[in-house]
C-alpha cells in the first residue's frame, strides 16, 4: 500500500467510502440478562458494577432504578472529573451539570441542563420524568424544581476545579470556544465583542480545522432488566472552560442516549456540540430497526458524523434487546464497559478510531487499494 501526502480529512473520507462496501461486522455476543453497558472503562466501571449488582440483588430494582444508580455512582465518584461536581468549570469557574433518563417502554424522558448547585443531577432528571409532563428543565429554574423535590442545594466548586480555572485564565484562557470575536480569542480572555457575520467559507474552514474535544467524557448507560424492559441515561458536567450557559448533547434525547424497548438502546460521548447536530443515538436505534446489527449501527453513525466533521472525537455504544452490543468511535481510542448474565466482573472493550478499524478490516479482507 502506498500512502501519499494528504490531509487527515481526505484520509478519513477515503476510509468512509469503504464503509458501505465492507463486509458486515457481527455484534459481540450477549452475556445474558440482566445487562448493563456504558461508555468508558477505568473509573466508569464502578457505575457498570453498581447498576448490575443492584439488578442482581433485588429483582424489584427496575431498569430505570439501575440507570439512576449507575450514573449516580459516577456523579459521586466524580468519574474522570467529567461527571458530577467539581469538574469542567466554565469560563466563570462554575461547574454545572447535565443529565437525562429515558424509559424504553413509554419513551418518556426526564432531563436537566445547566443545573446549578445540585449534585444529584441524574436524580433530578428522574424527578422530571416521574413528577412532571415535561422532558427538560434548565438552569436556575431546574435548581428551584430540584429544591422543591427535596434535593439539597450545594456548592459544586472544589479546590481542584477552582485551581484548574485559575490556571486556564493565567494561560490567557487557552483553549476556549469563542469564534468571530474581538479581541482575538486565541490570545485573549476578553471580554469579547462580536465581529460582523461569519461567511460560509470561514465557517467551512472552522469545521475542517476543528481538532476535536478532549474534555467531553460522559457516562451514558443502557440497562436491560431480566424481564427485557430497557432504560437509558446520561450524566456529565460538560466541556471544560465552556461559555457559561452552554448545554451539550448529554441531556438531549436521541443524542446523549436513546432507548426503544422494542429495538435497543444507545449511549454516546464526545464532542457534544457537534454530536447533537446528528442525533447519533436516535440514528443508531433506527439503524437497528432497519436490520443492522449493533456494531454496524454504531459504525454507520460515526461515519455519518465524520463525513462532515473529520476531526471530531466521538464514542457510541449500541445494544439490541438481547444484549448483543457494539461500539465505534473517532478521534481517540474509545472504551466501553459491560456486564450481564452471570458475569463475575465487568469487561472493558477497547475500540480503535473508526478509520483505523476500517483500514485493519481492509487488510484482513485483502481489499487494499494501491492508493488511499
Cα gyration radius (Å): 21 Å
| Uncertain residue segments | 1-8, 17-25, 368-372
Main β-sheet: number of strands, strand sense, barrel status? 8 strands, mixed
The H/E string reads HEHHEEHEHHEEHEEEEHHHEEEEH
What amount of the residues lies in strands? 15-25%
Rounded mean pLDDT score: 90
Report how far the terminal alpha carbons are from each other: 8 Å
Tell me the total number of β-strands: 14
Structural class: alpha+beta
Helix content: 25-40%
How many helices? The count is 11
- Globally, the shape reads globular
Structural summary, described in words:
The chain has 372 residues and is α+β, with helices and mostly antiparallel strands. 33% of the residues lie in helices and 20% in strands. It has eleven helices and 14 strands. The chain has helices spanning 8-19, 45-57, 63-77, 121-131, 139-148, 159-170, 200-208, 272-275, 280-289, 294-308, 354-364, and strands spanning 35-39, 97-103, 109-115, 136-138, 181-182, 193-194, 219-224, 230-236, 257-260, 264-270, 314-320, 325-330, 334-340, 347-351. It has an eight-stranded mixed sheet with strand order 4-3-2-8-7-1-13-14. Helix 4 links the parallel strand 3 (109-115) and strand 4 (136-138). Helix 3 packs antiparallel against helix 4. The longest helix has 15 residues, at 63-77. The radius of gyration is 21 Å and the shape is globular. The relative contact order is 0.19. Residues 1-8, 17-25 and 368-372 have low confidence and may be disordered.
